[in-house]
Write a structure and sequence with these properties.
Layout (H helix, E strand, L loop, with lengths): L2 E3 L6 E3 H11 L23 H7 L7 H14 L6 H9 L1
Antiparallel strand pairs: 1-2
Helix pairs in contact: 1-3
């Protein structure tokens, strides 16, 4: 399971959790479960320690607010969605 370090306190968030959160904002969206790719690390998580040290950067948003803001941005910027994704969405 791939994990993202997306919360202000840098706890890991699974890809499934992200998908579920997107689904709350996009009720018609479907989740397609596929086998984990061969060689994909199990339980990996991004470490932002170096970014904090070198850049002084730290996340300012939690995952829920980040997803909400991203989806609102996509509504205002539909050209950011690649054409192949529109095709897949129509086929589903």
């Amino acid at each position: 399971m791939l994990l993202l370090s997306t919360r202000k306190d840098c706890r890991a968030t699974s890809i499934r959790q992200v998908a579920d959160l997107v689904g709350r904002h996009c009720p018609g969206a479907g989740i397609v479960e596929t086998p984990r790719p061969q060689g994909d690390p199990l339980g990996a998580c991004a470490d932002i320690t170096r970014m904090r040290q070198v850049l002084g950067w730290a996340p300012q948003l939690g995952i829920e607010n980040g997803i909400r803001r991203y989806l609102k941005w996509l509504e205002r910027t539909p050209e950011a969605i690649p054409a192949w994704l529109h095709t897949e969405a129509r086929a589903a």
